[in-house]
């Protein structure tokens, strides 16, 4: 194997062995994201996964996928996963929910969701570096009313989602788990792309509203669609953005998968740019 091929295999090996996407290029991450969605029968436009930056255990960072609510909801529908039972118990100040998931063939799996139902008394302070920390008095009060109800529902939701991922063979984090991971940083899928950034949040509101009205979609759908590509950005005019969306939609209607539709739409918008440049090489100068 040539040195070039070996260099290309290193980031792929890191994904396969460690699930670390940080060394992939933006195009490779998009391809990986789309491939995972396709293999699981998930709609990528709903952003079933986001990225999470974690400590890699050796002082560095790694980037992994985690499943959000849309992922587990789609999996339950597509795989016909039923949550047949949820049991609960209280132990040592925590509420433990255990969900049992079942597939149509009868196979079952269980997972737990655990949350604290006690709140420590204390005050928030800052250290010399300006980092906030909580100084507890050692006294714990039991949650009551809405706070207790929300904690119990959170545990049950966590258990159901973890059971769904487990029975579908996915050993990845669910979004309900990440808040307990120290120094974890959530990175939305549309901006987890290295140095090429456009984030849909930077598109002007008037542009997003104009696109939403034109395509009879809500702004959220437009944002998700634009997040699939780095070929267009807030610097483009509305016509160019529409060219990309039209090409993407047409490719999907012709039966292309999401990954190929993005590639075709990127090529289409780049062809438009080349044509515009050829027609107006001076960039509009008189």
Structure description:
The longest helix is centred in the middle third of the chain and has 23 residues, at 145-167. The chain has 8 helices and 8 strands, in the order H-H-E-E-H-E-E-E-E-E-H-E-H-H-H-H. It has helices spanning 3-18, 26-40, 69-78, 145-167, 205-215, 219-226, 238-253, 258-279, and strands spanning 49-55, 61-67, 82-91, 94-102, 108-116, 118-126, 132-142, 185-187. The model is unreliable at 1-10 and 191-201 (pLDDT under 50). A hairpin with a 5-residue loop joins strand 6 and strand 7. The strands form 3 sheets. It has a 3-stranded antiparallel beta sheet with strand order 2-1-8. A 3-stranded antiparallel beta sheet has the order 3-4-5. The protein has a two-stranded antiparallel sheet with strand order 6-7. The chain is globular. It is an alpha+beta fold. The chain has 3 domains: 3-72 and 184-190, no CATH class; 81-160, no CATH class; 198-279, no CATH class.
Index terms:
alpha+beta; 286 residues; 3 domains; 8 helices; 23% strand; three-stranded antiparallel beta sheet
Number of domains: 3
What overall form do the CA principal axes indicate?
Answer: globular
Q: Residue-averaged pLDDT, rounded? A: 80
Runs in which pLDDT lies below 50 for 5 or more consecutive residues are: 1-10, 191-201
Rg over CA atoms: 23 Å
Number of helical segments with 4 or more residues: 8
Quote the distance from N terminus to C terminus. Answer: 55 Å
Class per helix and strand makeup: alpha+beta
Number of strands: 8
**Beta-strand content bin:** 15-25%
Q: How do the helices and strands follow one another from N- to C-terminus?
A: HHEEHEEEEEHEHHHH
> Percent range for helical residues?
40-55%
What characterizes the major β-sheet? 3 strands, antiparallel
Q: What order do the strands of the largest sheet run in, or round the barrel if closed? A: 2-1-8
């Amino acid at each position: 194997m040539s040195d070039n091929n070996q260099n290309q295999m290193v980031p792929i090996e890191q994904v396969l062995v460690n699930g670390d996407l940080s060394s992939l290029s933006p195009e490779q991450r998009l391809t990986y994201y789309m491939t995972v969605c396709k293999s699981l029968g998930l709609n990528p436009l709903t952003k079933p996964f986001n990225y999470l930056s974690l400590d890699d255990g050796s002082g560095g960072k790694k980037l992994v996928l985690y499943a959000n609510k849309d992922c587990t909801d789609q999996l339950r529908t597509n795989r016909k996963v039923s949550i047949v039972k949820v049991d609960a118990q209280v132990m040592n100040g925590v509420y433990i929910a255990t969900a049992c998931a079942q597939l149509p063939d009868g196979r079952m799996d269980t997972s737990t969701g655990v949350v604290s139902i006690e709140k420590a008394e204390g005050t928030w302070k800052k250290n010399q570096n300006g980092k906030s920390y909580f100084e507890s008095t050692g006294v714990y009060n039991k949650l009551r009313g809405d706070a207790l109800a929300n904690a119990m529902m959170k545990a049950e939701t966590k258990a159901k989602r973890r059971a769904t991922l487990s029975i579908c063979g996915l050993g990845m984090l669910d979004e309900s788990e990440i808040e307990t991971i120290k120094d974890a940083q959530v990175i939305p899928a549309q901006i987890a792309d290295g140095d090429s950034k456009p984030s849909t949040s930077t598109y002007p509101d008037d542009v997003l509203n104009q696109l939403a009205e034109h395509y009879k979609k809500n702004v959220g759908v437009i944002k998700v669609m634009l997040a699939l590509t780095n070929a267009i950005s807030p610097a483009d005019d509305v016509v160019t953005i529409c060219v990309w969306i039209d090409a993407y939609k047409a490719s999907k209607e012709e039966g292309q998968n999401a990954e190929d539709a993005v590639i075709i739409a990127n090529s289409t918008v780049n062809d438009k740019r080349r044509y515009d440049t050829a027609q107006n090489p001076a960039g509009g100068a008189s």
